[in-house]
Design a protein that fits this description.
The chain contains 14 helices and twelve strands. The protein is α+β, with helices and mostly antiparallel strands and 358 residues long. A hairpin with a 2-residue loop joins strand 6 (157-163) and strand 7 (166-170). The relative contact order is 0.14.
């Protein structure tokens, strides 16, 4: 048994070494991100200047893709606990949804608990006013220049129409009031956060959906989730299984996850972006302090992927869809940014749904 364990350890380390040595060919590449549309940049002025994270959705463009038609719907986003309730509210009050009427949405949240939501679309302002006036759970706050802020009392949610195509909402009234004087040429809100704006400019895909954070505690939470996945009772990863033959590999994988988590302090920002067509392209970007940190992170990421594949190989069973999908994952280093990218076809997504992996 000891000889067998030593063999498994040798195989595991060999796979790690082979995968991690490939980083050399990628170090000289330059990341070529989509440009940030001017209209999107202007709307970022309506968000707070120091958020925990920022998310952007372009529902209008996503609705035009086959991927959206096949796999997404209002229910996917309405179930989201942060802004799902708000989407349901404006659907009831304004008669619009992400499938019809809502074109874009911006969402941000800060550590003190205040959130900001900006929705772009086509709204019936009279319908909303009539809806609120007839419901005792709402009240109205009148401001000069004809501005009316609606307040949902039970949810402590404030919202108003900045114009016929822009709705701003927040649980923090002061944040709403700060947007009253914002114009298309204002340098306010998130636009005053130079570091975060620079990192937003570097997000690879900006057309459909993206999210970013440069807050260390938030980044730590992401990597803690990676570590927690590995601490769960077997199977640790889809396709792995408990048993003496895998115990050593599980230990090695756990150590790799712990080391992966430990380097989060060297990461300045984490971004996710999605490009939808007939398939879906998912990207995770990690901007590190320097190139050495980026190379180290890439090595750790590839080691975890390699060990996940290895655990299935040692089990002797046919790899399930989740493990086979790891073959679609590419990791690259661009100066001090690690880019992890996965392209999933319609067939891939259907297999994932059948396995109820996500």
């Amino acid at each position: 048994m000891n000889n067998k364990k030593r063999l498994y350890r040798s195989i595991a380390y060999l796979v790690i070494i082979v995968n991690c040595s490939l980083f050399i060919v990628n170090c000289g590449k330059k990341l070529d991100p989509d440009p940030l549309p001017l209209t999107v940049k202007q709307n970022l002025a309506l968000l707070q200047n120091d958020p925990q994270f920022v998310m952007y959705f372009n529902f209008k463009k996503m609705r035009d893709t086959r991927f959206w038609e096949q796999f997404l719907s209002d229910s996917v986003f309405s179930a989201e606990r942060n802004f799902g309730g708000f989407l349901s509210l404006i659907n009831q009050a304004a008669g619009v949804s992400i499938s019809n009427g809502i074109d874009e949405m911006y969402f941000s949240n800060s550590w003190i608990g205040d959130n900001a939501i900006v929705v772009k679309g086509t709204f019936d302002r009279k319908r909303v006013n009539d809806y609120v006036s007839a419901d005792t759970l709402y009240t109205k706050i009148e401001y000069p220049n004809g501005i009316t802020v609606y307040k949902q009392l039970d949810a402590n949610l404030n919202f108003y129409f900045k114009d016929d195509f822009t709705l701003c909402a927040s649980n923090y009234l002061k944040l709403i009031e700060n947007t009253f004087t914002v114009t298309d040429t204002s340098n306010s809100g998130l636009l005053t956060n130079f570091n975060l704006m620079k990192e937003i400019e570097m997000i690879k895909y900006k057309e459909n959906l993206w999210m970013i954070s440069n807050q260390k505690l938030f980044i730590r939470g992401i990597f803690e989730n990676f570590s927690d996945m590995n601490k769960k009772k077997q199977p640790v990863m889809p396709g792995s299984e408990s048993g003496d033959s895998l115990n050593l590999n599980d230990t090695t994988q756990s150590e790799e996850m712990a080391e992966l988590f430990s380097i989060y302090k060297k990461i300045n920002s984490v971004a996710f972006s999605v490009k939808m067509t007939d398939e879906i392209d998912i990207v995770m970007q990690n901007e590190c302090e320097d190139n050495n940190s980026a190379v180290e992170l890439k090595n750790r990421m590839e080691a975890v992927i390699a060990l996940a594949k290895l655990s299935t190989t040692l089990s002797g069973k046919k790899p399930p869809p989740a493990i086979k999908l790891l073959d679609n994952v590419e990791t690259n280093v661009f100066d001090k940014t690690v880019v992890i990218e996965a392209k999933l076809s319609e067939k891939d997504i259907r297999e994932i749904r059948l396995q109820r992996i996500f």
